[in-house]
Design brief:
The complex is a heterodimer of chains A (634) and B (252).
Chain A (H helix, E strand, L loop, with lengths): L1 H6 L1 E7 L3 H12 L4 E4 L10 H9 L50 E5 L30 H5 L9 H15 L30 H11 L5 H4 L14 E2 L33 H10 L3 E4 L2 E8 L5 E9 L6 E14 L2 H11 L26 E7 L12 E5 L14 E6 L12 H9 L24 H12 L2 E8 L8 E9 L5 E7 L3 H21 L2 E2 L11 E5 L2 E5 L34 E3 L14 H19 L3
Parallel strand pairs in A: 1-2, 1-8, 2-5, 3-14, 8-18
Antiparallel strand pairs in A: 4-10, 6-7, 7-8, 9-12, 9-15, 10-11, 11-12, 13-14, 16-17
Chain B lengths: L25 H5 L4 H11 L14 H15 L3 H4 L4 E2 L18 E2 L6 H12 L1 H13 L6 H8 L11 H19 L1 E2 L2 H13 L8 E2 L2 H5 L3 H4 L27
Helix pairs in contact in B: 2-7, 3-6, 3-7, 5-6, 6-8, 8-9
């Protein structure tokens, strides 16, 4: 089969089958183009039973847990990434003790701070997403001209509006148009989302009631720097590609509280849905377990072929090599694997800095939304662990004149109690009260929350009473902080560490700018306001050995802050009009190679605060249309 | 099991001679003493072991004892732990008025049958301590405060000099059994014991455990206690999260 595939001159070869790759493949398939997708990981499973079983069985229910390759070996130790054909970063390899340990962590991190986000390499890409489908705000596209910061995008909100609509239609989004009109976000006249909004949770309702019971004062909200009085901070529903009614043969959400890592009933969209549609066009071929490693550039700077290595088992060796020839090439391998592939492709020295990299910008400006997570116990029962993981948030504070000085933030309201914190509830708190420990901090009075042993060791009905009283009051929220695009936040190739196929692993350098850290400071002040209004007992804890920890002076107090990754990996193949300062144009076409497209959130010039998926989906659909209209115009 | 314990696993040391001050006798237990004092009496309440017999996971009687033990430890009614007709039988109707006839009692015909996995796991890993615990149930079978007596027997400090290693082993297995029911996960009793010491030296020490099975995860009670559901296993319908849940009694 490999031989047959390699003999064909495909119209389009796509590397990667995540959101961007799947959406583009489907559009090109519908346009009757012969497309091949080369996927590094496993193919599309016939159903999700194995994924669910892997998730249920996993001791560490991290975002990557349902998917391949395996994280732990039979000896229960992390599998050495040097033995894995298509490795990936995982949450369990981002700990204080192992984030710089190459035998456990796939990414080679040189610091000074950890890059905290992960991704999957499997058909459908990062299907462990939450489903959030926020649009960027208009000013997010023009940070330079509006606020004198960073760069503008080569496109504007109004250019992308129609593609946002197309992307929402493909993914199927539940939201209310009127509720989503804020920060100057507008919609076409008469536009409606595909499904009604996902209703707010009991936790959301308590946040909104607490925060907005009385008008907020200037003293309380002046720190926000919104340039106008802020007397109300609305809690708004979050648009989500999660069915609130049957849509495209998928049922409505049943509130499994498991969007990340996997929806057990596929009420949440994931790209395998579009991949299956793409294959049903009859024009799209899929080749799994095939890792692209060399983009070959021929005459006139056109890409002629992409070489790949195939493997049969996750920790097996290369079993086959091949080469895909096509008229147009699309690299949709995510924000870390795309620059890795470009940088590996030196063409015997003809592209010494890698393909599409005359600007020396490939790999630079790596961004995330560093995620500042806080938690507490509510004075009343708010009943978490119910409904989708997140149904509402605070978005109105994402844009304003303060962006001249500091990063913006968006607030996520969690419906999953302390599952995401303290080491993973319900296990931690249950173990505390059964075994007399205090890892959660709640098995002792608040003033002794740091004691290591707990006060109570319970059985029977007392245990039920205590757990019910604690679990039902757990609250968690997170602040997605806007991150500066910095040249030195960068993906390069490791010269020392290779994967199981002998290819250099991605090397990451990463830090937080002062601008971003000032965004954390504002987020901390917002946390204090929110917790005070809600009457929460604060159980947020930042360990001394946490490598993401840093301190800031806030309102006369030395405050420890930290972050996790949001999984919103952006930058590294910046989009722009100037070939010297960017990698691709506004259609995500390489400035250097006219038949090469680099797609996904790697092309984002700035990161704003909205989850990137909808925007990358919109850009992908625009690119697909551009390819059909220009590369294959009749 | 025959109502006796094997010689090699005595429950309490020097049962009568070392009886702590203030402890009560077997008779007070059987007549419904307070749980806290009942704990001290457990040793006195046990018969002398007549012969070594291990737990049989296929024994209906042993399963009934295990469900009763689990119910006492978890606080969840036996009918919910073992759905499908769990029933205690008594020679004197209406059941289950004491005395309970174990040989006629029914552990239920639950198609999910996660209880069998838990009994098997406990028996494979800690057979002696499991025997101890089932015998503890047997001895308190007809007590009006059965659950309290069982719990009280398992609540003591590790450095209590009146306790023997077998008592401590049983205490930590009891905790492991609770964690299986609540989390669908197996924490070795020795791990639970070590954690308490290790955490004092190293606060970053994480517990080692394993999920018993995918089925066990979906049947876990911890989040049902929270009036919710195991994450990734909801049997509710769209929109339920927008209003408070039903009363706790609907869940456990």
């Amino acid at each position: 089969m490999a031989g047959e595939i390699d003999k064909i001159l495909w119209d389009v070869a796509i590397v990667g089958s995540g959101f961007a790759g799947a959406l583009i493949a489907n559009e090109l398939g519908k346009g009757r183009r012969r497309v091949i997708i080369v996927e590094a990981g496993e193919g599309i499973p016939p159903n999700i039973n194995k994924y669910m079983s892997r998730f249920y069985s996993a001791t560490a229910k991290v975002p990557e847990s349902p998917y391949t390759p395996e994280i732990f070996g039979r000896d229960r130790k992390l599998i050495d990434p040097a033995t894995v054909a298509a490795g990936r970063p995982t949450v369990v390899s981002l700990g204080a003790k192992n984030w710089r340990e190459p035998k456990e962590a796939y990414l080679i991190q040189t610091g000074p701070r950890p890059f905290g986000s992960t991704y999957d390499r499997v058909a459908g890409g990062t299907s462990h997403w939450l489903g959030t489908c926020l649009r960027f705000a208009p000013n997010d596209f023009k940070m330079k001209s509006q606020y004198g910061r960073f760069v503008d995008w080569p496109i504007k909100y109004k250019d992308l509006n129609v593609w946002y609509e197309e992307a929402e239609k493909e993914l199927g989004v539940s939201a209310d148009v009127d509720e989503q009109r804020y920060c100057d976000i507008e919609f076409s006249p008469g536009y409606n989302y595909q499904m009604p909004k996902i209703p707010n949770s009991t936790t959301d309702q308590y946040v909104n009631e607490s925060l907005n019971k009385d008008p907020l004062t200037e003293v309380e909200t002046g720190f926000l720097g919104m340039g106008k009085p802020v007397t109300k901070i609305p809690v708004r529903g979050v648009p989500a590609a999660r069915n609130s009614a049957p849509y495209r043969n998928r049922r409505a959400c049943a509130g499994n509280t498991n969007c990340i890592p996997i929806c057990p009933i596929q009420a949440k969209y994931d790209p395998t849905i579009t991949l299956n549609d793409a294959r049903n066009t009859g024009s799209v071929t899929f080749k799994e377990r095939s890792v692209a490693y060399d983009i070959v550039v021929g005459a006139n700077d056109l890409v002629t072929e992409i070489k790949y290595k195939r493997y049969e088992t996750e920790t097996g060796k290369e079993t086959e090599r091949g080469s895909i020839k096509a008229k147009v090439f699309v690299i949709a391998a995510n924000t870390i694997e795309t620059p890795r592939l470009l940088l590996m492709s030196t063409n015997g020295g003809r592209t010494p800095r890698g393909v599409a990299n005359r600007s020396d910008m490939v790999g630079r400006n790596l961004m995330d939304h560093p995620y500042y997570v806080v938690w507490g116990l509510s004075p009343k029962k708010i009943y978490p662990y119910r409904g989708p993981l997140i149904t509402s948030g605070i978005g109105d504070l994402c844009d304003g004149p303060f962006r001249r000085e500091r990063a913006a933030f968006r607030v996520d309201i969690g419906n999953e109690g302390w599952n995401f914190v303290v080491g993973g509830d319900p296990n931690v708190t249950t173990l505390d009260f059964v075994n007399g420990l205090n890892k959660s901090g709640v098995n002792a009075p608040l003033e002794r929350r740091d004691s290591r042993l707990g006060d109570e060791e319970l059985f029977g009905k007392q245990l039920i009473d205590r757990l019910n009283e604690k679990f039902t009051r757990q609250f968690r929220c997170g602040f997605l902080i806007e991150q500066t695009p910095d040249r030195d936040n960068r993906v390069t190739l490791s010269s020392d560490h290779k994967d199981g196929l002998g290819l250099p692993r991605p090397q990451i350098s990463y830090n937080l700018s002062d601008y971003t850290r000032r965004g954390f400071v504002a987020a901390h002040r917002m946390k204090k306001l929110l917790f005070r209004k809600m009457g929460l007992d604060d159980f947020t804890k930042i360990d001394n050995d946490d490598p993401t920890r840093f301190e800031e002076e806030i309102d006369g107090e030395r405050v420890a802050l930290n972050y996790t990754g949001a999984g919103h990996i952006m930058g590294t193949c910046r989009m722009g009009d100037d070939p010297k300062q960017s990698v691709v144009d506004k259609f995500q076409r390489s400035h250097d190679h006219k038949n090469l497209y680099l797609v996904g959130s790697s092309t984002f010039p700035t990161g704003a605060t909205a989850n990137p998926t909808l925007t990358l989906a919109a850009l992908s659909l625009q690119t697909a249309r551009h390819i059909l209209d220009t590369d294959f115009r009749r | 099991m025959g109502g006796s314990l094997p010689d090699k696993h005595p429950i309490a040391p020097n049962a009568i001679e070392d009886e702590p001050a203030g402890a009560v006798t077997r008779r007070t237990v059987l007549t419904g003493a307070a749980a806290v004092t009942a704990a001290a009496s457990v040793g006195t309440a046990l018969d002398t072991p007549a012969g070594a017999q291990s737990v049989d996971v296929n024994s209906q009687e042993h399963m009934v004892l295990f469900v009763l033990l689990s119910s006492a430890l978890t606080g969840i009614p036996p009918e919910k732990l073992a759905p499908g007709g769990f029933k205690l039988q008594s020679p004197n109707p209406p059941a289950p008025t004491p005395p309970i006839d174990l040989s006629k009692s029914i552990p239920g015909f639950d198609p999910v049958d996660v209880k069998r996995e838990y009994l098997t796991r406990a028996n494979e890993r800690c057979p002696a301590a499991l025997e101890y615990l089932l015998q503890l149930v047997r001895k308190n079978l007809n007590a009006s405060n059965r659950d309290e007596a069982i719990i009280a027997a398992l609540q003591f400090d590790d450095d209590d000099k009146t306790k023997r290693p077998a008592d401590v082993d049983a205490k930590y297995l009891a905790r492991s059994i609770v964690l299986m029911w609540y989390l669908g996960a197996w924490y070795e009793p020795t791990e639970l014991q070590a954690l308490r010491k290790d955490l004092l030296k190293d606060p970053t020490r994480s517990p080692r455990f394993e999920v018993v099975s995918p089925k066990a995860y979906t049947q876990a009670w911890a989040l049902r206690v929270a009036q919710a559901h195991p994450m990734g296993f909801s049997e509710m319908q769209f929109g339920y999260w927008t209003r408070p849940p039903n009363p706790r009694t609907d869940f456990i």
